[in-house]
Amino acid sequence: EAITHLRNGYLFQTGSIDGITKAMEWFTYNRSVATDFARNAFAFAKENFELENTIMQLESYLFDKILEKH
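Predicted structure:
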């Protein structure tokens, strides 16, 4: 998952008016934590989705598969 509840975001049930209302209220009273969420989300995205890192992960995976066959 790209978002972990209360670590780098706030999860709620899709289509839940109550859920989005609670999320908006939570962010209203926890603005400094929202800044931390943004930092954590950026770090996660950079680590997991940046092209160079993705290529390195794929290369490592393929290398391991080649070694398994030999």
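Summary: The CA atoms of residues 7 and 55 lie 26 Å apart.
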